[in-house]
């Protein structure tokens, strides 16, 4: 049996990373789309050379790694460049995610992605779990965690799918408005249910 794939998402500060960590502690194979996105632009990977070729050497740090803030500046000034960047990176990120998911040996695997809905990645999973939290709590948690300003956090929240949009795609919703012990208990409850579901025989 091939493992079936659960998409796990939630807005910034919702607690999706804590939920994913607890699923992993229960033995579930977890793949993080953000990690895959970082991995495809590491030194020595073809994407990084293409970026330097296209945007110029100023997108590289002295050590040869990607200078994310320099890249952001390029994209910010020229929105058309964002499309070029996405056309380059999205297929590579997709391949990386597929490669990682193929290694799963647990009955189901999890793809964690903050942009599961916006990027269309939800079409590649069998079920979607949204870790949800009231927006005010999302804001307070993120400001406290990242020492970010309220404006910065609101700007990130604007880019991410609206809460209603995310919830529309959800098969399951984990309301994370209590403490970590509650979150872990909910993850364990969902895990027991998920173990009863079957993937594609193959």
From TrEMBL:
This protein's record includes keyword ATP-binding = yes
Its name, as the record gives it, is Dephospho-CoA kinase
Major site of localization recorded for this protein: cytoplasm
| Keyword terms of this UniProt record | ATP-binding, Coenzyme A biosynthesis, Cytoplasm, Kinase, Nucleotide-binding, Transferase
Residues bound to ATP are: 13-18
Task: Say yes or no: keyword Isomerase present.
Answer: no
**Top-level taxon of origin:** Bacteria
Q: Which GO terms describe its molecular function?
A: dephospho-CoA kinase activity
Q: Supply the InterPro entries for this chain.
A: Depp_CoAkinase, P-loop_NTPase
Q: Which reaction(s) are listed as its catalytic activity?
A: 3'-dephospho-CoA + ATP = ADP + CoA + H(+)
Its EC number(s): 2.7.1.24
SUPFAM superfamilies listed in its UniProt record: P-loop containing nucleoside triphosphate hydrolases
Q: What does this protein do?
A: Catalyzes the phosphorylation of the 3'-hydroxyl group of dephosphocoenzyme A to form coenzyme A.
What CDD domains does the annotation carry?
Answer: DPCK (cd02022)
Q: In which pathway does it act?
A: Cofactor biosynthesis; coenzyme A biosynthesis; CoA from (R)-pantothenate: step 5/5
Which family does the record claim for this protein? Belongs to the CoaE family.
List where in the cell it is found: Cytoplasm
């Amino acid at each position: 049996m091939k493992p079936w794939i659960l998409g796990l998402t939630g807005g910034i500060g919702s607690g999706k990373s804590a939920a994913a960590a607890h699923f992993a502690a229960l033995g579930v194979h977890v793949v993080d789309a953000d990690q895959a996105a970082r991995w495809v632009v590491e030194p020595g990977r073809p994407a990084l050379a293409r970026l330097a070729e296209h945007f110029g050497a100023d997108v590289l740090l002295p050590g040869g790694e990607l200078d994310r803030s320099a890249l952001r500046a390029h994209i910010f000034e020229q929105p058309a460049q964002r499309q070029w960047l996405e056309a380059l990176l999205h297929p590579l990120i997709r391949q990386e995610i597929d490669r990682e998911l193929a290694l799963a040996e647990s009955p189901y695997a999890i793809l964690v992605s903050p942009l599961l809905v916006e990027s269309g990645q939800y079409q590649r999973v069998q079920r979607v779990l949204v870790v949800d939290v009231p927006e005010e709590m999302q804001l307070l948690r993120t400001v406290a965690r990242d020492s970010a300003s309220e404006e910065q956090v609101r700007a990130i929240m604007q880019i991410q799918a609206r809460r209603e949009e995310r919830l529309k795609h959800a098969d399951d919703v984990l309301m994370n408005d209590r403490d970590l012990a509650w979150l872990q208990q909910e993850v364990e409850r969902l895990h027991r249910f998920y173990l009863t579901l079957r993937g594609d025989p193959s």
